[in-house]
Every structure is written in structure tokens, then in C-alpha cells.
Design brief:
The protein has three helices and nine strands; from the N terminus they run H-H-E-E-E-E-H-E-E-E-E-E. The protein has helices at 4-29, 36-39, 85-92, and strands spanning 56-58, 61-63, 66-71, 76-80, 103-108, 117-125, 128-133, 138-142, 156-163. The longest helix is centred in the first third of the chain and has 26 residues, at 4-29. The two termini are 18 Å apart.
């Protein structure tokens, strides 16, 4: 049986492979506009690629009084939230019944429909990064596990906490 994170990893890999193949085909086959008046004769072809929304999901829960989450697809087991992020999660989940048993946190570095929380990057420290919530008027520290999901610390993280289905 595959866990949601493992299914997401398989799905993400398929999307990445398809995108890479598509970019290769476009880059090697497309010769640009064939009309000399379009951009001038001899102009090099250009290719613009939009940023894609990349939604990720974890399912935090309380274990030994701490908010933690598991994501076997990236090698995390009972990864704790500390230093203010735990307090933010308490506030984010105040209206989610039995959130301590687990809730779904959808997150992205890009805004997406339905996000309710927004964290703004402040500074790096001890291998992790501090983020500020205007909504809760507080900072919280995200540990280096952040880099399992992002190649670098995003300037903004958008989150939608919701009950598990």
C-alpha cells in the first residue's frame, strides 16, 4: 500500500519527466517564427516557460505533545515543528475538529486557490529559516527539512490547513 506522500512522489516524477521531454522536444525541434518580419531575420528563437504551481501535502499530527509529520517519500518520520511554527499550527487548526489526530496541510511557494495562510521569509538561522505570519503577528522557524520540498527557502509559503478527508 502506498502512502499519499509516496503517491505524490510518483505523480510528481511523472510530471517532471513529461515536462522535461516536452521542453527537450520544443528546444530541439522548434525553429522559431519562420517569417523574417516577425522578429527580424536571423534572430535566435526564444522560449518562455511559465512558473507552474507545485502543490505539496503533508499530514501533521500531535505526537508526545508536539506537532510532527511523516513523509516516507523524502525520508522523514515524526519530523517536529518547533520554535513558533507549532504555535501557528495550533492557531491554524483551532477550527479543525480533532486536528491533533492529523490534518492535511496543502502548501506551495506560489499562491493557489483556497490558501488561507501566508508565511513570509525573514532570515536563515541554524540551517533553517524564520518565517513571519502577518495573520498571527508572529515568527516561526522551519528546520532544514524545508529543503526536502524546495531547492531553496521560498520567499513566501502559502498554506491551506484542512481536515483529513
Amino acid at each position: 500500500m502506498l502512502y499519499p506522500a509516496e503517491l505524490r512522489a510518483q505523480s510528481d516524477l511523472k510530471v517532471v519527466v513529461r515536462a522535461a521531454v516536452a521542453m527537450f522536444v520544443v528546444a530541439t525541434v522548434w525553429k522559431g517564427p519562420q517569417c523574417p518580419d516577425c522578429r527580424g531575420a536571423g534572430a535566435a528563437p526564444t522560449l518562455k516557460i511559465k512558473n507552474m504551481n507545485s502543490l505539496m501535502v503533508i499530514a501533521p499530527y500531535k505526537w508526545n505533545g508536539m506537532w510532527v509529520f511523516d513523509d516516507p517519500a523524502v525520508g522523514l518520520d515524526k519530523e517536529p515543528f518547533i520554535a513558533g511554527i507549532d504555535t501557528m499550527i495550533d492557531k491554524m487548526t483551532a477550527n479543525i475538529p480533532k486536528a491533533e489526530r492529523g490534518f492535511r496541510a496543502v502548501f506551495s511557494a506560489q499562491p493557489f486557490p483556497g490558501y488561507t495562510e501566508k508565511l513570509e521569509w525573514r532570515r536563515s538561522e541554524s540551517g533553517g529559516n524564520w518565517y513571519y505570519s502577518h495573520h498571527y503577528k508572529m515568527e516561526g522557524w522551519l528546520c532544514p527539512a524545508l529543503f526536502k520540498y524546495f531547492p531553496q527557502a521560498p520567499k513566501t509559503i502559502y498554506i491551506k490547513p484542512e481536515p483529513k478527508g
